[in-house]
Amino acid sequence: MRAIALPTSELPDEVVKELHARVYTRGDQKEVRFDWRAVPALLPVWWNGRLQIVRWGNRDRAERKLPPTGWTWKATVEKGRWVGIEPEPVEIPANYVLANGVWFRVREGLRGLMVRTPSGVPAVFVVCEPATRYYRVMTRAEWMPVLIKEII
Amino acid sequence: MAGFIAHLDADAFYVSAERVRHADLANKPVGVLGNNGACVIAKSYEMKAKGVKTGTPIWDAAKMCPEGVYVKRDFYWYEVLSRKMLGIVGTFSPKLEYYSIDEFFFHAEPLRHGQQLATTATTIRDHILEATGLPVTIGIARTRTLAKLFSDTGKPFGAVAVLTRDHERELLAKMPVTEISGIGGKRADRLAPYGIRTCLDLADADGRLVKRLLTKTGHEIWMELNGEPVMPIRPERPPHQVLGRGGSLMGNVEDPKVLWAWCVRHVERLIEELRYHNVRTTTLAVEVGWKDQGWTGGTSNSPTPTDRIDELLDLARASLRRAYVTGRTATHMQVKATELRRGKGFQLSLFDKPDPKKDKLATVKAAINEKYGRFKVRTATTLYLPAVYRDPANEYDICDVRGKVCF
Predict the structure, then answer these.
(1) Would an 8 Å CB–CB cutoff place B39 in contact with chain A?
(2) A43 FRET partner, CA 20 to 30 A, in A17, A140, B161, B260?
(3) What are the UmuC domain coordinates in residue numbering (chain B) (predicted)?
């Protein structure tokens, strides 16, 4: 997956204002797109009881102790490979997800793993798993984000 | 004003149903994907405007409409809304046919004395939108064939009452004959040499010629086009002559074990249907669709009607052996019970021994699945299909929506 989108109506006004360059119109509704290719790459997360916009992964390799990606395997998390940096499971709210050119609707969003960099900056990694057959056919992707309360 | 028939057709039903629960999808190009996630099975008008058609592969659709949003189908949800609509229409008309998940026919009567039928159609349409969130189009005419044709002209969100012959002729003249349900390309080809190209051409043709060219069914359509109702509204679905389950194998299947697992899955689904309709079968046919190589089939018979898994799997095994072609790649399969008998009161053969233990086992399996969900207890052979059972959306298909007249 490369991006997610949330209608502006689901984000606080000040956040929309701050992210105005990432606001797009689809149909007659405005939405904020969080794209891995955007600089900086950002994602919304529910964390500490409120919606926050945080760094998506470590694409710019700013943190040497973090992998230079925006994703992590669910199996890796379950094996405890992240334990050393005290990760926290978080929810990434999303209405639409983009994978290989296909936007698809999700019910609640994606599972994420939040960590703090040594300098204290929060960063989130999208938790992934091998794609279901349906997802693989739909997007031609071999892996998929772990969705909240949903199987595609 | 008596004697008019209404046809209700939900507008882009699957998309509208998704918009009921996801309001953000309104006014966006939306496509609902089918059982495999490969093709668009329903599209919004916004997506249609970009050239996406029903059946367009997702990878083509995504190029034609990059801003489109795709949704995985959910027949549970579509049935909930379909039955809600059905209940509402039933309050307006007691004579109602559940034609398909998104189409009904019903007897059209003014809701109050002196009301125009166009107003009646508008009132029902608006009420359905308010109560369910679903936009529908309603066409009213002298026969069901005409009503269906005219509701198509009113889409989307139309309410059309065509009550006079002149009005009928005006609209029929603009419609190609292939617009009529039941007249496809081949039948149209038979009509073309006689100059019959529009619905009005067909209506004005000699009835004997139409009967000769299109047989009895075509003649009935001709009568209906001329305002003579011969296809009644069917409040109850006529009993099934054949029950079947099957479809795509969700990819290429070469391993005979996996092919057998699919067969067992379809037999288990078929048994649910047999039990629901309280019928048993003496004949089980298995048809296999092969990649680029057509279909083959096999049939097996039992001396006694049955709905029991062990007996039907014996028949299925023999039928599949007959249908199986070594070295080919299977893509589709159908399992059909073609000789149906009432579930009770049938004659056992001289050599049949009642087997109450197996009967009880079948009853317990059905009861557990009824209580805890479909396929909670299933034949171990189906463990070869983990991906199929992992996804709850595969538990329910369009054919599982019961009581509709049409597929």
Answers:
(1) no
(2) A140
(3) 5-184
Sign (positive/negative) of CA torsion A85, A44, B37, B407? positive
Q: Are residues B252 and B197 in the same domain?
A: no
Active site residues of B: 103
B252 touches chain A (CB under 8 A): no
B82 lies in the same domain as B59: no
What was the ipTM of the complex prediction? Answer: 0.94
Please list, residue by residue across B37-63, b when 16 or more beta carbons sit within 10 angstroms of its beta carbon and e when fewer do.
bbbbbbbbebbbebebeeebebeebbe
- A31, closest residue in chain B (CA to CA): B24
pLDDT in tens, A42-99: 999 998 888 999 999 998 888 888 889 999 999 999 999 998 888 999 999 999 999 9
User: Are residue B172 and residue B309 in the same domain, yes or no?
Assistant: no
**Given pLDDT bands bounded at 50, 70 and 90, which one contains residue B345?**
low
**Which structure tokens are listed for B122?**
């508008």
Mean pLDDT of B16-33: 96
> Which residues does chain A have within 8 Å of residue B22's beta carbon, measured at their own beta carbons?
95, 105
Residues B386 and B275 in one domain: yes
B230 within some domain: no
